Amino acid sequence: MCKYLVLLLCCALNFTYADECKKIGDCSCEYYDGTGVNLSPIIGRGSLPLQANDANGVVYFFSPCEDQIYIPDNHTNTSVVENNPCSKGYTLCRVTANNTTFNYTRLGELKETQFTKGKDGDGLYLTYVKPNQSTTHVKLVCSSDKKSYFFPGAPEDGTTNLLLFSPHACPVTVEDFSKPSTGTVLLIMLFVTFLSYFIIGATVNAIYLGARGMEIVPHVDFWRDLPSLVRDGAVYLQNGCRVTSQAPNTDSYDAI
């Protein structure tokens, strides 16, 4: 019974996280199966951001992997540029025109990038949330075209929806060597902990307790009994977490 519960728990965890894309970089994420999305090739370093225009004349500038400070050439009003929050660096900027004045809204920054699922599990999104200000979703659409295209999406109360069609939005095998994985870090920490335990313990036993030979190993009795403890634990799990009745030891009090 115990092992079946463990299997059910593992299956439930796999199902829960299988369609989640864990962020592993500024603009990349990885699924449970080792595939993932890397948007860094969409715009080269120093290149201009993607641009999308909606029917109301609103313009969106988008740079998914780098904070930009680009201001369009036709926006030459110096006073507006100085008061422009997008000039401080943006990943997603909205520009609206009011007569001859341009209003800038910084919808997202690189540090705010989140990879999220749609409400109905309908794909992968880049989400930017500014508390009490705005929420923006950029849906990533896998495209077979070699270029990337950026469009405004259907409007929604309190939320800005945008669409990014790109071949780089298609899941591929992720090869991320820029930093060690969580598992690698945990293994290194475990190895260092055990090494420190044995070195410090052996030093104390040898210098302060005068131990020699195998007795120098810290908690040597525990390590001697470990194989039998592991065996007993395996038998316990195999029996469905039930203690089996055994004949008493001939040397025990019950036998006497």
Largest sheet: 5 strands, mixed
Oligomer: single chain
In helices, the fraction of residues equals: 25-40%
Order of adjacent strands in the largest pleated sheet: 8-9-10-12-11
Taken from the alpha-carbon principal axes, the silhouette is elongated
- Structural class designation: alpha+beta
Low-confidence stretches: 1-16
Mean pLDDT: 81
Strand content bin? 25-35%
Report the strand count.
13
By DSSP (H or I, 4+ residues per run), the number of helices equals: 4
Order of helices and strands: HEEEEEHEEEEEEEEHH
- The whole-angstrom Rg is 30 Å
Q: In whole angstroms, how far apart are the ends?
A: 36 Å
Helix-strand blueprint:
Blueprint: H1 2-17, E1 22-25, E2 28-30, E3 35-38, E4 50-53, E5 59-62, H2 78-82, E6 92-98, E7 101-108, E8 114-117, E9 124-130, E10 134-142, E11 149-152, E12 159-166, E13 172-173, H3 182-207, H4 220-238
Parallel strand pairs: 10-12
Antiparallel strand pairs: 1-2, 2-3, 3-13, 4-5, 5-6, 6-7, 8-9, 9-10, 11-12
Q: In summary, what is this structure?
A:
The chain has 256 residues and is α+β, with helices and mostly antiparallel strands.
